[in-house]
Design a protein that fits this description.
It comes from Streptomyces aurantiogriseus. Pfam families: Usp. The protein has 290 residues and is an alpha/beta fold. It is elongated. The two termini are 15 Å apart.
């Protein structure tokens, strides 16, 4: 699809870092940048100080100040700005539907792991039909250099991880970077074995060779589509979250798939994506499964 890269901004240091990341990526991919801010009139205490018109003016001035700084750094970049009154989640999800990806700020590390991402970010990721990139405050372009890889998690059958692999290869191609494709595996319980699965393992020569063959099969179409992108195939025993975090220090971007789960207390985004968003030091792209 065609469309801009969209950055959601809210005046925080995290959103300014996200805006800067989105601008650099838009330049690399030769795309336009759309900047979106969703706001609501604060009718209680804030209204005692300023009415609707003043609040909206302050919001617009704050957004324009952030956009002006990005425009100065990237004079050839096409930038549009939308300050929209309404619910933040609904506004951002609607903007993403017309975009290549959405870039948001993430609050980073903290003591209460379950509350780091924030309700807006978590809901947007759970509802998103296209990639969402989370960027921490303080993120610097110095990480986007040779030697720093695009790390992507691969699991299941080839089609299960196709959207995440596609995003990783497209990003690597735009940056001249290497893709490190990671497939983590664990020993299955005895009751999981069946005659058919035992035959597959026997044909492959064992568990680890089977996992290596599965990763190679998932990567094959993307290697053909992006022949100039170097690829490192990384197969390691362990939980997916632990293995991905072990290589995150060499990553300029971590790409993980997402299969959202609905529960009585709201949407959950999966343990691997959740763990990367809270513990990886680099930006994290969460790509919904097809």
């Amino acid at each position: 699809m065609t469309g801009p890269i969209t950055a959601g901004v809210d005046g925080t240091d995290e959103s300014r870092a996200a805006l800067a990341w989105a601008a650099r990526e838009a330049v690399r991919r030769d795309l336009a940048l759309r900047v979106v801010h969703a706001w609501r009139f604060q009718s209680a205490a804030a209204a005692e100080v300023a009415g609707r018109d003043d609040q909206e003016r302050w919001v617009r001035e704050s957004v324009q100040e952030a956009v002006a700084a990005v425009a100065e750094r990237h004079p050839g970049l096409t930038i549009t700005t939308d300050v929209l009154e309404g619910d933040a989640v609904e506004t951002l999800v609607a903007a993403l539907a017309e975009s290549q990806m959405l870039v948001l700020g993430s609050r980073g590390h903290g003591a209460v792991v379950g509350f780091l991402l924030g309700s807006v970010g978590q809901q947007v990721i759970a509802e998103a039909t296209r990639p969402v990139v989370l960027v921490r405050a303080g993120d610097q372009p110095s990480t986007e250099v040779a030697g720093h890889e695009i790390v992507v998690g691969q699991q299941g059958a080839p089609e299960d991880s196709a959207p995440a692999l596609r995003f990783a290869f497209e990003t690597a191609a735009a940056r001249g970077a290497t893709v490190r494709a990671v497939r983590a595996w664990t020993l299955p319980p005895v009751f999981a074995y069946s005659p058919a699965s035992l035959k597959l393992l026997d044909d492959a020569g064992g568990l680890e060779p089977y996992e290596r063959q599965a990763l190679a099969a998932a990567l094959e179409p993307w290697r053909k589509r992006f022949p100039d992108v170097p690829v490192v195939e990384h197969v390691e025993i362990g939980s997916a979250g632990q293995v991905l975090l072990s290589v995150s220090g060499r990553a300029q971007l971590m790409v993980v798939g997402r299969r959202a789960h609905r529960t009585a207390v709201g949407a959950r985004i999966g343990s691997v994506a959740h763990g990367m968003l809270h513990h990886a030091d680099c930006p994290v792209a969460v790509v919904p499964h097809a």
